[in-house]
Amino acid sequence: ELLWLDAEGKILSAGPTETVRGPDDLYTVSSRVTVEKRHSNNIICRVQQRNINQTRETQIEVTARVSIILITALVFICGAIFGLWKWRQNR
Predict the structure, then answer these.
(1) Is 79 exposed, middle or buried (0-12, 13-18, 19+ CB in 10 A)?
(2) CA-CA distances (angstroms) from residue 62 to 32, 38, 70, 78, 91?
(3) Which residue of 1, 10, 67, 83 is most buried, as measured by CB atoms within 10 A?
């Protein structure tokens, strides 16, 4: 499960999450979120694996110059972190 949260920890409305399992048994998890300009420019990308009760997250500071391409790249980074974590769980 991939979640986007604002600086206060409230879940942001995001597009559907896509999970793809690669030939190396690693997973890529991706999702998109649109954020509004606010006082706080921090958002959190959280990946949860509920069946083993583990969570990983990263905080992202969105500045006026951040483009959608950078946010998409960060989503793929979250997916890579999740894939590595899942791979280690299966070892």
Answers:
(1) buried
(2) 14, 10, 10, 16, 36
(3) 83
- pTM of the model as a whole: 0.62
Q: Which residue's structure tokens are 């879940």?
A: 11
Both structure tokens of 64: 């006026």
pLDDT in tens, 6-63: 888 899 988 888 889 989 988 888 888 887 776 567 889 998 888 889 898 988 887 7
Contact indicator for 17, 46 with CB cutoff of 8 Å: no
Indicate the length of the chain as a whole number. Answer: 91
